[in-house]
Specification:
It comes from Corythaeola cristata (Great blue turaco). This is RGAP1 protein. The protein contains 3 helices and no strands. The protein is mostly helical and 112 residues long. It has one domain (2-111). Helix 1 packs antiparallel against helix 3. It is rod-shaped and about 120 Å long.
Length: 112
């Protein structure tokens, strides 16, 4: 009788361990599926960041190009002797402010 009781206790413990193992395998499968989904999301997010960075670099390059054009126009206007008669004092002041801002902005180290 004692051997039968030990055998039954061992069988129950074995069944319980088997159920625990099955639950652990199911949980592992769920976690792995969730991890795979998160990795896909991360990949998409990284790709999106890369696309946005490329857009930003293109926009910054275009901005620098436009700032340089503005600076060249300003320098040409200020160099010409006839410009003082054509441009009012206010227009010269506005051009100076714009050119100064563009020059200052393009010389800032954090921009590139």
């Amino acid at each position: 009788i004692q051997i039968a009781q030990c055998f039954e206790a061992t069988r129950r413990r074995c069944c319980r361990l088997e159920q625990d193992g099955q639950r652990a395998r199911e949980q592992l499968a769920r976690v792995e599926a969730e991890r795979a989904a998160l990795e896909v999301k991360l990949k998409h997010a990284r790709n999106q960041v890369e696309v946005e960075m490329k857009k930003r670099h293109r926009a910054e390059a275009e901005l620098e190009k436009q700032e340089r054009k503005l600076q060249l126009v300003f320098e040409a206007l200020m160099r010409e002797p006839w410009s003082s008669g054509v441009l009012s004092g206010e227009q010269c002041s506005i051009l100076s402010a714009l050119a100064g801002r563009c020059l200052g902005a393009s010389l800032m180290p954090g921009r590139r």
